[in-house]
Amino acid sequence: MTFITNVRVTDVRFPTSLSAAGSDAMNKDGDYSATYVTIETSDPTLRGFGFTFTIGRGNDICVSAAELRAKPLLGRELDDVTGDLGATYRDLKSDSQLRWLGPDKGVEHLALAAVMNAVWDLAARRAGLPLWRFLLSFSPRELVDLADFQYVTDVLSKDEAVALLEAQVSTRDARIRELDGTGYPCYTTSAGWLGYSDDKLRALCQEAVDAGYKHVKLKVGADLADDVRRCRIAREVLGDDANLMIDANQVWDVDQAIEWVGALAEFRPLWIEEPTSPDDAVGHATIRRSVAPIGVATGEHGMNRVLFKQMFQLGAIDFCQLDAARLASINEVVTVYLMAAKFGVPVCPHAGGVGLCELVQHLSIFDYVAVSASLDGRVTEFVDHLHEHFTAPCIVEDGAYVLPDAAGYSAEMFPESVEEYAYPDGAYWSLRLEQAEAEAVA
Amino acid sequence: MTFITNVRVTDVRFPTSLSAAGSDAMNKDGDYSATYVTIETSDPTLRGFGFTFTIGRGNDICVSAAELRAKPLLGRELDDVTGDLGATYRDLKSDSQLRWLGPDKGVEHLALAAVMNAVWDLAARRAGLPLWRFLLSFSPRELVDLADFQYVTDVLSKDEAVALLEAQVSTRDARIRELDGTGYPCYTTSAGWLGYSDDKLRALCQEAVDAGYKHVKLKVGADLADDVRRCRIAREVLGDDANLMIDANQVWDVDQAIEWVGALAEFRPLWIEEPTSPDDAVGHATIRRSVAPIGVATGEHGMNRVLFKQMFQLGAIDFCQLDAARLASINEVVTVYLMAAKFGVPVCPHAGGVGLCELVQHLSIFDYVAVSASLDGRVTEFVDHLHEHFTAPCIVEDGAYVLPDAAGYSAEMFPESVEEYAYPDGAYWSLRLEQAEAEAVA
User: Fold this and answer.
1) Which residues of chain B neighbour A301 with C-beta distances below 8 Å?
2) N or C: more exposed end of chain A, with fewer CB within 10 A?
3) Pairing of strands B215-219, B243-247
4) How many A-B residue pairs are in contact by the CB < 8 A criterion?
5) C-alpha to C-alpha distance for A385 and A22, rounded to whole angstroms
6) φ/ψ of residue B65, rounded to 5
7) Least Cα separation, residue B240 to chain A (angstroms)
């Protein structure tokens, strides 16, 4: 028998604010960070890795929350923990005192995501399968039983969800073969960070086109004249056929969003992403009606399945950008995919940050193979940084994610990276904080 | 000149789980707790006190988050901090790295509430006024300028809000005199905790009637047969004229809520409180349409102004139960009151817990005097426990809150209480944790 012997949670922060990579109208100086969970077992060859993603300060708060969330795992027998992943999720989620701090949102939910992502990684490694293949090993009924249906049964019953999955079973293999050849289509955000100059923007757009991308995304929302100029540059480089997306990172109120997007309509964006508060399903529905045919996309801050349910019910979004480290792991992600399939909304997961690309490739492949069986309107985010810290980084070729084949959820970082960027005691931060102190004295 | 010299945040937990006070279908064993903030200044006679409310585990996470949130206050000049309470709020809220962990929800938002509640207490003490009177000292324009209107301008412009407040100015004094005589009406939840026996329920309902209450609330949602029996007992004791409210604390999905409430309709509840997920504005609207004329109430887990905006837009609730320690202090509470007034929804704040009654009495009085100018359908929660720990506890007479007259927000606890119930090192918890350890060994 194998037991869980320890759960380590590490505050890992990468100093991305130094390069303006990741800068947008709302998030000017993020240090991409991970609340990084390692589950150790009595079998020294078997561990699980997972994380939630933050942008710096407060990552320590998530670490404390994840440590508390993980406590019920200690000493548990592995067959028990990974044998019923629905029960494990419900058990960790069931603490009513911690529930008060959400429920199902904010730091506590991020912490649950971090811990359960590691449990899923552990389970997939134990099965010797990459996460997307591990998900295919469950029957439709098993998958639905492990998904969190609390508060969503008014739009999707479990039986309906099972039927939806069953309808795709017989054609799964053909789609796996297809993706094996083509990969899963992605787009790049690396070109359009707000802190980049016009020349850098132009060059990066050209690079994206040359690398085979059909979609490029720009950050907007700080200054309208800048946005017009930058969109014009991007559209010039991309030509008429490629897709341009714009992303405001929640800086507008509803009326302002409608006005601003109207002023950029001439550049024919495929979507406006995060036009306003991520919580505002009604507001997104209003914006969508007003800016059509430009699509509305949101979800990286979509706090839970109940929010996405309302987005779908109100017809608020054209693209669902769920986040693999904000939703409480596969148990909640599957629920959102199932609802999206029922409502016919394509899911284009949020990625970037640190390690999110590694996670979402599994989700997109699972969606195409087992849930939506469609690539229409679907394209998954890819941002080309920080992959060097992962032991099995995602691979992108010709604008598509190559199917991952290593066992697990691709969430493991090199121990050297974790050590160097551990905050505040890792080598990188020790030195930098020491320098800052010296400067303050001088 | 006076400066902020220190901000202390203490994890205070009261062992309410021992008595089943506070038990309901979702929260079976809460230890009512406060993330308790003390702002110290260079004037030893001037401090500010505030808190957010939690129910035990995870209160330490909120403490860490509040410490981080409060950092920008250290060393600041007091005129600067309390002279523009809108700017102070925006400054504390503006940290984009911490924003990622919400935004505007969960632990980070609770922490902001705790810190800003203490800032408001400090400002009111400095002015020598109870908080409700301090709020009346602002002009309508000043009040609106300090309120957080981000993401709500599509339903309420600042000018509209100013006009709404101005319309009530000339009649304010008459309403203050009225409340001075009658107090602000409240109802009691102390009778109906789920953990209480039928006999205890009957006796407590009778006590409530004898004490002058016109409203009594029962917890429901764990077992339908139990609920029918308990509602029947309560209705028998209350007679036909008094109001019975029922509270499910989020245990149902939407369809289940409609069915269960239908089975209790014969007892003519005034409202069903928290029938489902607090995030589900669309779901509450569906339930409301289905259970009318029974009203729908929610809000104690209403995470922010954007959620309440949608509740109002969708006609989802008959009673808005905002929480003074979950919304990010007066700056966000005022916004919700203004929207509620525009949409004609009565606000009946959530209270109970520890210290919430002390806070919300100020809000209800402010609402009647300056915002809604109405008592129709309004009744504020009152739960009779833990008041003995406060230096200026609320006073309830004949089912009404007596106007508080001590300067501040009534949030200060006796230092002896804070010391005794500090977790885990206070006298109470040290002993109890020692005993638990001894039992574990034996």
Assistant:
1) 103
2) C
3) parallel
4) 195
5) 10
6) -65, -40
7) 34
Cβ separation A250–B98 shorter than 8 A = no
Distance of CA A280 to the CA centre of its chain: 19
Is the pTM of the predicted complex or chain greater than 0.95?
A: yes
State whether B57 and A250 contact (CB < 8 Å): no
Taking CB atoms and an 8 Å cutoff, what residues of chain B touch A281?
Answer: 281-282, 310
CA B442 and chain centroid, separation:
42
Out of B65, B99, B253, closest to residue A61 by CB: B65
Task: Collect all residues of chain B within an 8 Å Cβ-Cβ radius of residue A259.
Answer: none
Distance, in Å, from the CA atom of A60 to the CA atom of A153, rounded to the nearest integer, reads: 35
The CA–CA distances, whole Å, from A417 to A14, A212, A295, A412, B171 equal 10, 31, 39, 10, 66
pLDDT 10s digit of each residue in chain B, 442 long? 999 999 999 999 999 887 666 667 777 788 999 999 999 999 999 999 999 999 999 999 999 999 999 999 999 999 999 999 999 999 999 999 999 999 999 999 999 999 999 999 999 999 999 999 999 999 999 999 999 999 999 999 999 999 999 999 999 999 999 999 999 999 887 676 677 889 999 999 999 888 888 888 999 999 999 999 999 999 999 999 899 999 999 999 999 999 999 999 999 999 999 999 999 999 999 999 999 999 999 999 999 999 999 999 999 999 999 999 999 999 999 999 999 999 999 999 999 999 999 999 999 999 999 999 999 999 999 998 999 999 999 999 988 999 999 999 999 999 999 999 999 999 999 999 899 888 888 7
> Does the distance separating the beta carbons of A30 and B153 come in below 8 Å?
no
Q: Which residues contact B44 (CB under 8 A, 6 or more apart)?
A: none
* Phi then psi dihedrals of residue B111, to 5 deg: -65, -40
Q: Which residues of B58-75 are buried (b: 16+ CB within 10 A; e: fewer)?
A: bbbbbbbbbbbbbebbee
Q: Hey, what are B69's tokens?
A: 């949130």
DSSP line for B256-285: HHHHHHHHTGGG--SEEE--S-TT-HHHHH
Which positions of A are catalytic?
A: 219, 350
User: Which run of H or of E encompasses B39?
Assistant: strand B33-41
Distance from CA of B238 to the nearest CA of A (A): 31
CB-CB neighbors (< 8 A) of B70 in chain A: none
Which residues, other chains included, contact B414 with Cβ-Cβ below 8 Å and sequence gap of 6+? B389, B390, B391
DSSP assignment of A21-81 = TT--SS-SS---EEEEEEEEESSTT-EEEEEEEE-STTHHHHHHHHHHHHGGGTT-BHHHH
Among A29, A107, A110, which would you mutate to test the B interface (most chain B Cβ atoms within 10 Å of its Cβ)?
A107
CA-nearest of A142, A161, A106, A155 to B253 is A155
SS3 at position B390: strand
Out of B96, B309, B310, name the one closest to residue A28 (CB).
Answer: B96
Q: Which of A27, A31, A106 sits opposite B109 (nearest CB)?
A: A106
Tell me the C-alpha distance between A9 and A34, whole Å. 10
- Strand intervals (E) in A214-373: 215-219, 243-247, 271-273, 295-298, 319-320
Handedness of CA B133, B134, B135, B139 (dihedral sign): positive
Q: B60 to chain A: which residues are within 8 Å by CB?
A: 64
For residue B421, give how far its alpha carbon lies from the nearest alpha carbon of chain A (Å).
Answer: 17
Contacts 24+ apart (CB under 8 A), A205-210: A205/A233, A205/A234, A205/A237, A205/A238, A206/A237, A209/A237, A209/A238, A209/A239, A209/A242
Annotated catalytic sites of B, by residue? 219, 350
Who among A30, A101, A154 is closest to B254 (CB)? A154
Q: With a threshold of 0.90, tell me whether the complex ipTM lies above it.
A: yes
Distance from the Cα of B286 to chain A's closest Cα (Å) equals: 10
